[in-house]
Specification:
By secondary structure, the protein is of the alpha+beta class. Helix content is 32%, strand content 17%. The chain is built from 4 helices and 8 strands. A 6-stranded antiparallel sheet has the order 1-4-5-6-7-8. The chain has a two-stranded antiparallel ribbon with strand order 2-3.
């Protein structure tokens, strides 16, 4: 019986085809994996901060009883109240450190004015960086049309991979609001200050992306521009 085998040319052609297919598919697979990791890390950070907040409130009362002052020094007060309940690797306060030297960019590309190196900041044990500031020391302002958005005090910026790139709002930097009732991911459905539709779609600042990632578990706003809380929650 005559035996048949692939020729060297056929093997090389097959390997070439496999290489081309891999080159086309791998970037998409890697990007998808990174986005899934972002969801996991952000949800973990939300859980850690929420638990720390509740423990701080149980011991010290709500933030309006913490002696807050408006601005970056007030962020140090929030950090001081949360720190005993967080596994902190490095606490820089408002001193240098714990901050990427390149700063941050908005989702749309231009440089973001916040967070900045003089904000209260710390690095958690898992490499997550947090930055804090107080917007309303009396915690009496509202961000939207629901009880959880009432009585907000300030913001916590969370960089899920610390000093590593891309250092961009809506990709690895996400914003939470500190209120008297808890820590709220920015961009929830009833928020009017940083709503998802105008603060997390293409060419936006990315400040309203946090709730979308946590509750819809995707970053599809990076790939299509017709998503909404009331309708389409995935590109496909």
């Amino acid at each position: 019986m005559k035996k048949t085998a692939f020729t060297l040319a056929e093997v090389l052609i097959t390997l070439g085809i496999i290489g081309v297919v891999a080159a086309l598919v791998m970037p998409s697979l890697i990007a998808n994996y990174k986005e899934k990791q972002t969801v996991v890390r952000l949800k973990k950070a939300y859980s850690i901060l929420s638990q720390a907040y509740q423990r701080a409130v149980n011991d010290n009362g709500t933030p309006d009883n913490w002696g807050l002052v408006t601005g970056k020094p007030g962020g140090n007060i929030i950090l001081g109240n949360l720190a005993p309940y967080l596994n902190i690797q490095e606490n820089c306060g408002t001193d240098p450190g714990c901050f990427p030297s390149s700063g941050y960019k908005y989702l749309s590309g231009p440089a973001s004015p916040a967070p900045t190196a003089d904000m209260a900041k710390a690095v958690l044990a898992d490499g997550t960086s947090i930055y804090l500031t107080v917007v309303d020391a009396t915690c009496s302002s509202n961000l939207g049309n629901s009880p959880m958005l009432a009585n907000y005090c300030g913001w916590i910026y969370v960089d899920i991979n610390g000093l590593k790139s891309p250092n961009q709002v809506g990709k690895d930097l996400f914003v939470f609001t500190v209120t008297r009732s808890g820590i709220v991911p920015n961009g929830v459905q009833d928020e009017t200050t940083y709503p998802f539709n105008s603060s997390c779609q293409t060419n936006s600042n990315g400040v309203g992306c946090t709730a979308w990632v946590i509750f819809n578990e995707n970053l599809d706003y990076l790939h299509c521009n017709d998503l909404s809380w009331e309708g389409k929650t995935r590109c496909n």
